């Protein structure tokens, strides 16, 4: 969903008072185009204007979003939608500032793992009673869980991205390994063995781009039953790092430091940074998000033969995911009209257009059945076959997670993967130090 593994700026890094002080030094126009008064009154003809902030950034995705806005406006002269461009890298802090300044967009494109602070803080509208029956029924319960906090829905999950293995088909054939399928994926042990068999000379079996290691680690660990965050009967969350949580981190660590089947230099890279080496044959496999297929199609040298393999699985077979979402600001005076636009945007044919534009999977079951998303070309069919195994990332509803991620887990995992610390030291950091962080948010 966010290329190169980059996550949005972490909630909690700035407090609201500090952001307001910074915002006060900026011209009002720098916060967000438009003014709050404009959308809070109807014109003499009864027309209202809703602002839709989109984070689409790829050419096809931008085109699809803007076309859909234009189609809505052509058929709804009394409810006009103005497209506002946002950016994944800055969306959290931008929204934080705009909420406090009364300048938030009416309809907000974001990701489910960025919603918790805004939901608990009262910035987002509770959509539970606003959701049309068609939309509620089309999106499965496990997807709704990603945007539900304290039993209330604060976002509509609509696009999702499984993590997959992008592999060099020639190296796969030469190694003689069993080719995994969505129905029969590799276990983590088979994956480690396959990487060793594809390591030859200075060429590695796998490259792990782990500049942002936490999300990838936690989401893949769900496949072995790992959750790390555990909510007790009192509602409070505690960090554990049990055996099931350790399978994925230990696999990566051993590939880099023991088997030497994974490149050490790619640990500090984003996903796009590994593609030149992948095209050059230095790495046989790269674990990436499903949408990276677009970059590979655009950038791979002529004749380069690649394929998409399912990520390894453990006993649970699930994979954590944080879908893209559409929310409504609590301050929006026209929530029903905003929801009508969201419902239009996410009609099955339109959801397919958005998925194709972003090279992602729709959450809607009717859209997921569309033949355009089940073709063999570019391995779309492999991705759609994985959709049923995607589940809510365990950390999404945990208050204090962003601070735990930034201050505890990111440096801890980076040091562990590089071999600078061992598993026991990592466990102490994640659990002991991590629980001290969470305790401040749960008093």
The span between the termini is 33 Å
Strand content: 15-25%
**Main pleated sheet:** 6 strands, mixed
Number of helices: 19
Tally of extended strands?
A: 16
Which percent range fits the helix content?
Answer: 40-55%
State the secondary-structure class: alpha/beta
Strand order of the largest sheet: 2-1-3-14-6-15
Radius of gyration using CA atoms only: 22 Å
Low-confidence stretches: 1-41
Shape: globular
The whole-number mean of residue pLDDT values reads: 90
Explain this structure to me?
With 443 residues, the chain is of the alpha/beta class. α1 (16-24) packs across α4 (91-100). It has helices at 16-24, 36-39, 59-75, 91-100, 116-120, 133-138, 141-144, 169-175, 188-197, 213-221, 243-257, 275-279, 292-299, 335-345, 348-358, 365-368, 380-386, 401-418, 423-441, and strands at 48-54, 79-85, 107-111, 148-149, 152-153, 156-160, 163-168, 204-206, 229-231, 237-239, 283-289, 306-310, 319-321, 324-328, 361-362, 390-392. β9 (229-231) and β10 (237-239) form a beta hairpin. The longest helix has 19 residues, at 423-441. The protein contains 19 helices and 16 strands.
Gist of the model:
Helix 1 crosses helix 4 (91-100), helix 3 packs antiparallel against helix 15 (348-358) and helix 9 (188-197) packs parallel to helix 11.
Question: Would you spell out the secondary-structure blueprint of this structure?
Answer:
Blueprint: H1 16-24, H2 36-39, E1 48-54, H3 59-75, E2 79-85, H4 91-100, E3 107-111, H5 116-120, H6 133-138, H7 141-144, E4 148-149, E5 152-153, E6 156-160, E7 163-168, H8 169-175, H9 188-197, E8 204-206, H10 213-221, E9 229-231, E10 237-239, H11 243-257, H12 275-279, E11 283-289, H13 292-299, E12 306-310, E13 319-321, E14 324-328, H14 335-345, H15 348-358, E15 361-362, H16 365-368, H17 380-386, E16 390-392, H18 401-418, H19 423-441
Parallel strand pairs: 1-2, 1-3, 8-11, 13-16
Antiparallel strand pairs: 3-14, 4-5, 6-14, 6-15, 7-11, 7-12, 9-10
Helix pairs in contact: 1-4, 3-15, 9-11, 10-11, 11-18, 18-19
């Amino acid at each position: 969903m966010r290329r190169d593994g980059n996550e949005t700026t972490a909630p909690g890094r700035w407090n609201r008072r500090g952001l307001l002080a910074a915002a006060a030094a900026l011209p009002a126009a720098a916060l967000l185009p438009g003014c709050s008064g404009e959308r809070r009154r109807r014109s003499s003809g009864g027309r209202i204007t809703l602002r839709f902030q989109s984070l689409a950034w790829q050419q096809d995705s931008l085109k699809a979003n803007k076309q859909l806005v234009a189609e809505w406006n052509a058929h709804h002269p009394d409810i006009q939608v103005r497209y506002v461009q946002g950016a994944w890298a800055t969306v959290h802090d931008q929204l934080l500032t705009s909420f406090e300044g009364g300048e938030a967009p009416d309809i907000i494109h974001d990701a489910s793992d960025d919603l918790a602070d805004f939901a608990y803080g009262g910035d987002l509208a509770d959509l539970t009673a606003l959701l049309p029956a068609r939309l509620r029924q089309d999106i499965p319960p496990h997807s709704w869980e990603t945007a539900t906090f304290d039993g209330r829905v604060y976002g509509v999950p609509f696009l999702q991205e499984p993590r997959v293995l992008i592999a060099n088909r020639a190296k796969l054939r030469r190694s003689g390994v069993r080719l995994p399928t969505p129905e029969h994926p590799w276990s983590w042990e088979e994956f480690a063995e396959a990487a060793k068999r594809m390591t030859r000379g200075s060429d590695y079996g796998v490259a792990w781009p782990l500049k942002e290691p936490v999300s990838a680690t936690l989401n893949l660990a769900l496949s072995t039953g790992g959750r790390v965050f555990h909510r007790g009967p009192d509602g409070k969350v505690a960090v554990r790092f049990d055996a099931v949580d350790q399978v994925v981190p230990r696999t990566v660590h051993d590939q880099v430091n023991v088997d030497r089947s994974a490149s050490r230099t790619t640990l500090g890279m984003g996903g796009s940074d590994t593609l030149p080496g992948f095209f050059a044959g230095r790495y046989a496999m790269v674990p990436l998000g499903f949408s990276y297929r677009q970059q590979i199609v655009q950038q791979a040298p002529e004749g380069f033969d690649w394929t998409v393999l399912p990520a390894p699985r453990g006993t649970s077979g699930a994979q954590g995911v944080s879908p893209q979402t559409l929310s409504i600001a609590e301050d929006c005076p026209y929530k029903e009209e905003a929801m009508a636009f969201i419902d239009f945007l996410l009609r099955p044919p339109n959801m397919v257009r958005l998925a194709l534009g972003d090279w992602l999977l729709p959450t809607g079951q009717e859209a997921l059945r569309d033949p355009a998303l089940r073709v063999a070309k570019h391995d779309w069919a492999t991705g759609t076959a994985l959709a049923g195994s995607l589940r809510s990332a365990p950390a999404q509803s945990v208050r204090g997670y962003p601070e735990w991620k930034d201050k505890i887990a990111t440096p801890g995992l980076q040091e562990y993967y590089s071999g600078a610390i061992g598993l026991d030291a990592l466990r102490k950091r994640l659990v002991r130090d991590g629980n001290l962080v969470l305790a401040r948010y749960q008093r």
